[in-house]
Amino acid sequence: THKRSSSMHEDKDRHLRNLALNRSYQSNDMVANMNAKKKEEPEGKLVSALEVGKGVGKGVYGRTVGATGKKLSEIKGMMFGGASCCKPGEPRYPRYNACFSVKSVHEVVPLLSKPIDSFSSRCVIMGPDDGLIECICDIGERKRYLKAQLKTLQQNPNAFNDPDSLSVNELNTEEIKKKQTQIRILEKKIKRINPHIDNMQMSNDSRVYGKTIATYAYDCIKNVRAGEPNADSFYAEAFSNMLYFAVADGIGWGVPSRRASQAALLGFMLALSEFHSKRKGSPVDTVAMAQACFHGIEFAHQSVFSNTEAKTTFCGGIVVELEHQATAPQIIPFTDDLSSDSDSDSELDYDSDLKKKKRWVFVGVSVGDSLIYRYSASTMEVMELTVSDRTGGVRDAGGCLGGKEPDLRNMTYHYCLAEEGDLFIAVSDGVHDNLDPEVLKQSPRDSGYSGDPNTSWRDLDNDIKNELKRKFKEERLLEIIEAVDDGSPQTITDAIIQEITEVTRLQREGYEEGSRLQRDWDKMEEKERNDLNQWVQTTLKTSKGKFDHVTCLTVQVGK
Length: 559
Description:
The chain is built from 16 helices and 14 strands. The chain is α+β, with helices and mostly antiparallel strands.
């Protein structure tokens, strides 16, 4: 269990290393219960999705999981049902002020949802521009492109080895044929839910709002803004008692990267639509939801692989109302043991209102450095649900979808309880990197570290560094949220985007003025030229922030 709270200001130094070391993927009680359960299971049990992703020579999504395993599509009986699902008051029931990141579907505590409403969604939002619809519309052109590439290779197997070739793709005949096969599968799935796509209401729903911008500087010599087109994408779909949402960040620039993020969201949407259509009118449990998220990642990768040669990060999930609602306060004994996740005073502060606020649950998955946060309207805290790790630097995404094999180093399932009014905030690294104290040029000391004041970020242990940065980002997001009068998803999304725009403003102005200086050098008087040159150099040395595509998607829990 990795606990998330932005209100932990005291004794930071004393507990910082303990917090970092105690951030396991589950609480001790849950590990014991799950291990006991696994001992009772027969051979052929479902292995973790991460292990599925380690297939060597057979393809990550070939679905072969080992001698004692089964194909994922053959696993039956994963629905626990109401009788076996965990209920409030039971030892395994998760606490509201905790969130969990696990590597296996089996490690998700089974909680039962209300019966899922009809397949027709109230609202769908996607972006930027037409979002994943662009990817659907481009499939015909993609098929023609692959056909032409295949023909070229069949006529000359060494065509792409020619140093004078205009092709930048490392494609071979076998890979192109695999992409063509996956596109045919994609088209069949799209055709199957065409009525749903046609009935998608691109209308406003106050529960969901997303926005994408680019913070890159404008080049007045080339008359273009760097980083175009925007390679981030977002998608959210709102039903009566269920919400889907996801953010993807195409790695690199250009149309291929943009298409990668759109294709990932398309694959995720298709998988969840299939999941929804088979279960409408019935309750589902969180294990089945986690399994649906795995299928979403599986098909998201296949969609990226078939639609482009680029790659993308991804985060997304499902929020649904729970069947079993808490009716009495959860009394948690006081303890000094941080690993027990015991901030019981925070739990008791709002439990008196449990009858007024319905409990929901979030189950999601992430690959790479796109992150999800939860803002609690009851405790006024921000928690990171995903597990970010920036020890490799801001250029290391940690994982991605696309290519011959996806990079699943940090693929993780996430789940937590939620209440009506809570917010889930999904962001690309263009947001959270610009909340990073190191990127903001703040020292560890100024970011909550009370050790040696001369300690630099490079000197810190990786676990301590990640913990410091995570807590700093949570607190900064909380400040942004609390500064707005209206707590709606649109207002909060706009406030976060505005914050990132402001953080990068001076650096952007420095580059833009430098561009103007180059263009107008001969037209300027010597003093004007020298003054501007000095200002540009000083600004670029002292400015903070990181240019990037910036996406924020906010989802509010409730009907």
